[in-house]
Amino acid sequence: MSLLDVIGPVMVGPSSSHTAGACRLALLARHALGGEPRRARFTLHGSFAKTARGHGTDLALVAGALGAFPDDPLIPRALEEAAARGLDVDFATADLGDVHPNSVRAVLEGDGERVAVTGSSLGGGLVRVFDVDGFRIDFSGSHPTLLLRHLDTPGVIARVARVIADDDVNIATLVSARRKRGGDAMMSIEIDRPLTQPARDYLRHLRYVTWLRELPEVMQGPDAAADDAGAAA
C-alpha cells in the first residue's frame, strides 16, 4: 500500500472518484481519439449523473478531454477553456446497464476521427475502461496502453506480442475482443513502458492492423508520463 492509497491522489478536488477519476477517463478518451477533439459528448450514469455539477464531474471530464491531468489548475475553468479552444461540449444522462455507479461514456470527435470510450471511476482516483467503440476490452490507465483495431486473423495476437517482446517490453495485460469470426477486432495491451518508434511503426504497417493508439499512464502526472515517452523514443 502506498501513501496515495491512504490520502488519495494529488488533484483539484473535491472528489477523487467524481473529479480525479472522471478527469482520467476523459484523458484516456482523448488519447484514444489520437488528436484534438472538436466535439465531446458525455453520457453520465448512476451517481455520476446525480452529482455531476456538485462534485465537479462535468468540469473534470471537459478538462480531461482538453488534455489536463487531475492536478491541473485548468479544471475549475474547463468550460471557459473549452469554448476558447472551440470544443463543443454536451452532457446527457442514461442507464448504461450493469456497471459501476461512477461510469461515463465519452464520445469524442475531431479531424475526421471519432471514438467512444466507456469506463468507471472506482474510487481513490482509480479508473477502468471496459469498452472502446463497442469492443469489450479492459485497461486501467496504470500502464502505457496500446489499443489496436485489426482484422480477426489467425496469429495476429502472437505477432503483436512478438513485436512487443522484441522491443524488450513486457506485457502486463492483454485483452482481445471481436465482433465476429474473421471480422473487426480490438486488443488492449498494457505494457511496462512505451514502445520505441521503430516498434510502433512496424505495428502500424502490419497489413491486418487498421488502427493503433498509444495511451499514456494517466495515474502519474504529465511530467512523469512525458519522461516515459521520451525514454522510449
Q: Class by helix and strand content?
A: alpha+beta
At the fourth level of CATH, the homologous superfamily of the largest domain is D-3-phosphoglycerate dehydrogenase, domain 3
The CATH class of the largest domain is identified as: Alpha Beta
At CATH's second level, what is the architecture of the largest domain? 2-Layer Sandwich
Strand content: 25-35%
List the domain count as a whole number: 2
Largest sheet features: 5 strands, mixed
Write down the overall geometry: globular
Average pLDDT reading: 87
CATH topology of the largest domain: 60s Ribosomal Protein L30, Chain: A
Give the helices and strands as they follow along the chain: HHEHHHEEEEEHEEHEH
pLDDT < 50 runs, ≥5 residues: 3-7, 10-14, 229-233
Main β-sheet, spatial strand arrangement: 2-1-3-4-5
What distance lies between the first and last C-alpha atoms, to the nearest angstrom?
31 Å
Q: What's the number of extended β-strand segments?
A: 9
* Share of helical residues: 25-40%
CA radius of gyration is: 17 Å
